[in-house]
């Protein structure tokens, strides 16, 4: 059985639409996908401004839909199902996407699935041809999330690690801001760090061994103190600082990942989310787990996208799991997905 599914993503500062074919016997196929990033707009304010983000989604989604339909040569009436991000995310932004999806589905009687954004990230590797088999470990590292899940099967996720404060991407961005690199400065900080060699010159807070929880808030204070001790930001020391910051974040991420791998027998480790673009993180994960299959989905499926949202809906549609759409959720732990689906079902 094959189903043609439309995915809609608008949980933060990226509007995205995708058309994906899912099947109960063959890997999914992405027919077309489009994304419109608002990064340049929010950069002016040093962070995402929720009201502006909602307004941008409202303008972008209809255009993205039209482009995707034209590119795939598909009419709305041909669609078997729609998946839309229901959370976690900015409520106003989620509402825009959800109402847009309702407008498509209601008049046509198309099933509409409310999708969990993090489920999208952990299942995104299944979009590629050499798909994985369950179970696998997924480290999700983005600007808003840092968590490790044991992915048992569709809809069944066991949380192994989560951050108690900032996300890894947020830590990169805050540190980059202290180094005067603008927002979001994670990639710029990484580029500076990659130009340095050898052990970092500065010591920054290290992860507590044996503890599953991530914590990045101490890092910002430590960096501020270091800069203060130097009498302000010294251009010549920026690279060395970036190197120390990147090393500290990467070792925190890999430390908790090692713990998760030690305690769970899996063959495959997936690293996804915007921070998975980081070269030092990729290198370290590959070094640490030579006996595992380490998968980094292609970057456009690591960062926010709508193909992963269509996939979550499509996998349910081909399994005859009934659609459910609840209220938009700003916070929604992935491990509660089953419960929530039942509550709203
Ligand atoms: O998943 P993502 O694209 O979007 C959201 O979280 O919404 O992740 C963006 C995050 C930002 O914090 C950005 O600074 C970070 O990923 N990032 C990086 C790199 N590229 C993007 N952090 C470290 N190294 C990179 N190369
Ligand atoms: Zn995301």
What is the mean pLDDT? 95
Portion of residues in helices? 40-55%
| Overall strand count | 10
- CA-CA gap between termini: 24 Å
Gyration radius, to the nearest Å?
20 Å
Q: Which secondary-structure class do the elements indicate?
A: alpha/beta
Separate helix tally: 12
The order of strands across the largest sheet is: 3-2-1-4-5
Largest sheet: 5 strands, mixed
What are the low-pLDDT stretches, counting only 5+ consecutive residues below 50?
340-345
Bound molecules: 5'-O-[(R)-(carboxyoxy)(hydroxy)phosphoryl]adenosine, zinc ion
Shape: globular
Strand percentage lies at: 15-25%
Order of helices and strands: EEEHHEHEHEEEHHHHEHEHHH
Structure description:
The structure is a single chain. With 345 residues, the chain is α/β, with parallel strands linked by helices. Helix content is 41%, strand content 20%. The protein has twelve helices and ten strands. The strands form two sheets. Strands 3-2-1-4-5 form a five-stranded mixed β-sheet, sandwiched between helices. A five-stranded mixed β-sheet has the order 8-7-6-9-10, sandwiched between helices. Helix 4 (117-123) crosses helix 11 (307-318), helix 5 crosses helix 6 and helix 5 (168-178) runs antiparallel to helix 8. The longest helix is centred in the last third of the chain and has 26 residues, at 238-263. The chain starts with a strand and ends with a helix. The structure holds 5'-O-[(R)-(carboxyoxy)(hydroxy)phosphoryl]adenosine (KG4) and zinc ion (ZN). The site of zinc ion has 4 residues, from helix 4.
């Amino acid at each position: 059985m094959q189903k043609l599914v439309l995915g809609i993503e608008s949980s933060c500062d990226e509007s995205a639409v995708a058309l994906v074919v899912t099947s109960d016997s063959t890997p999914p196929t992405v027919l077309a996908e489009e994304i419109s990033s608002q990064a340049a707009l929010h950069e002016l304010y040093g962070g995402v401004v929720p009201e502006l983000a909602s307004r941008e989604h409202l303008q972008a989604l209809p255009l993205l839909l039209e482009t995707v339909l034209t590119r795939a040569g598909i009419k709305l009436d041909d669609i078997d199902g729609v998946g839309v991000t229901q959370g976690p995310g900015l409520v106003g932004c989620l509402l825009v996407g959800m109402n847009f999806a309702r407008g498509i589905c209601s008049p046509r009687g198309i099933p509409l699935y409310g999708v969990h954004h993090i489920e999208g990230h952990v299942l995104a590797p299944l979009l590629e041809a050499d798909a994985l088999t369950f179970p696998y470990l997924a480290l999700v590292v983005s600007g808003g999330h840092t968590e490790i899940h044991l992915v048992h099967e569709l809809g069944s996720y066991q949380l192994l690690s989560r951050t108690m404060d900032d996300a890894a991407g947020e830590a990169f961005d805050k540190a980059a801001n202290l180094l005067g690199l603008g927002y979001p400065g994670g990639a710029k900080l990484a580029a500076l760090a990659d130009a340095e060699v050898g052990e970092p010159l500065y010591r920054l807070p290290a992860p507590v061994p044996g503890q599953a929880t991530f914590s990045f808030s101490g890092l910002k204070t430590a960096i501020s103190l270091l800069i203060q001790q130097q009498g302000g930001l010294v251009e010549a020391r920026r690279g060395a600082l970036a190197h120390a910051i990147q090393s500290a974040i990467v070792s925190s991420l890999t430390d908790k990942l090692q713990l998760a791998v030690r305690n769970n027998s899996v063959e495959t480790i997936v690293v996804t989310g915007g921070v998975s673009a980081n070269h030092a993180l990729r290198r370290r994960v590959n070094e640490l787990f030579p006996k595992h299959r380490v998968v980094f989905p292609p970057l456009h499926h690591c960062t926010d996208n709508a193909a992963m949202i269509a996939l979550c809906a499509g996998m349910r549609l081909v399994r005859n799991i009934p659609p459910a759409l609840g209220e938009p959720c700003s916070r929604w732990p992935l491990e509660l997905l089953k419960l929530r689906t039942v509550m709203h079902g």
